[in-house]
Amino acid sequence: MEAGVSPLLYIHIHQGGNIVNLDFKKIEVLADKEITKDNFARIYIEPLERGYGLTLGTALRRVMLSSMPGTSVVGFRMQGVTHQLMTMPGTATDAVELVSNLKKLKFELAEDKLEKVIFKASKAGIYKASHLKLPKGVELKTPDIDLVNVLGEKEVEIEIYIKKGRGFVQASEHTATLNVDNLIGVDGLFSPIKRVATSTEDIRTGDIVTHERLVLDVETFGNINPKEAVMLSAKIIKTHFDFFEDMKDRLTEYEIYKEKEKEVESINNMTIEELKLSVRSTNALTGAKIRTVGELRKMTETELADLRNMGKTSVDEVKKVLTSLGVVLGDF
């Protein structure tokens, strides 16, 4: 695939008071129709400045693998089984093996809530995920995963819990946060992305390499379209870079101290009337010729209580108002 002539993408920056045009080529994002399927897409991003392919490819791959929303099994429960190291009555499958199988399951949920699917079988045999009884709004994307080897001695019933999420969440967190009694937690592998491969190709003008092409191969588990995954990952990255438009100078410790000092000075200059205390408390303070918060902060609680008409209720009121301002009696 050879790149045609692309229009220029004009990016203007201010440098030393002058406007500099970087003259980047306008970038196209193209899907290869011949090999793109429901769960797989090959995406070309071109023409890129040399070295930009690796930069963009690494960022897109990392976001797709770690930050895409998806659905995962988060735990299960079965009568007589209290932890992952136990055997499972009526089966030749132990809990460790079941957890390994559950991590391979991928679902699509219509609603963002904890859902329960049921496995129930009494005849001997190796049962696949397709045997699960699914509630309305739950779709199984991996029906061919082996799940449980039932011996046929008794009926086997397992409750499996699934929910939406993002990234990786440890089993212990599910056990602690989900309101399900006797739940055996399963590590949440929420990513709907099965594989992301990146590579770059040179784009030449004659014998000279002028630009490069980024090639993304994206394979999903079926609960997100691979082209949508690429677009969503790009949007996530763009959202993070948008924050740079509001870049501010980082304050030094000295500057932070000076800002705090100005704030405290403003509080100290507040009049007693501005505190909006009760009439009794206000009269008691102004009667003692205490006119500002700064003068009030110089007093201890005992000194305040000794003022005429300043009872316990008034003292508590003053302390509460000062606390709301971030200051206390006797700290000035």
Name the CATH class of the largest domain. Answer: Mainly Beta
Q: Average the pLDDT over all residues and give the rounded result.
A: 86
Instruction: Identify the strand order in the major beta sheet.
Output: 5-6-18-17
Class by SSE composition? alpha+beta
| Discrete helix count | 9
Ends: how far apart?
75 Å
EC number: 2.7.7.6
Region (Alpha C-terminal domain (alpha-CTD)): 264-332
GO molecular function: DNA binding; DNA-directed RNA polymerase activity; protein dimerization activity
Function: DNA-dependent RNA polymerase catalyzes the transcription of DNA into RNA using the four ribonucleoside triphosphates as substrates.
Summarize the structure in words.
With 332 residues, this protein is of the alpha+beta class. The protein folds into three domains: 8-68 and 193-246, RNA polymerase, RBP11-like subunit (Gyrase A, domain 2); 69-189, Beta Complex (RNA Polymerase Alpha Subunit, Chain A, domain 2), CATH 2.170.120.12; 253-324, 5' to 3' exonuclease, C-terminal subdomain (DNA polymerase, domain 1, Orthogonal Bundle), CATH 1.10.150. It is 29% helix and 30% strand. The protein contains nine helices and 18 strands. It has a four-stranded antiparallel beta sheet with strand order 5-6-18-17. A four-stranded antiparallel beta sheet has the order 9-13-7-15. A two-stranded antiparallel ribbon has the order 1-4. Helix 1 packs across helix 4. The longest helix has 17 residues, at 226-242. The protein starts with 7 loop residues before the first strand and ends in an 8-residue tail after the last helix.
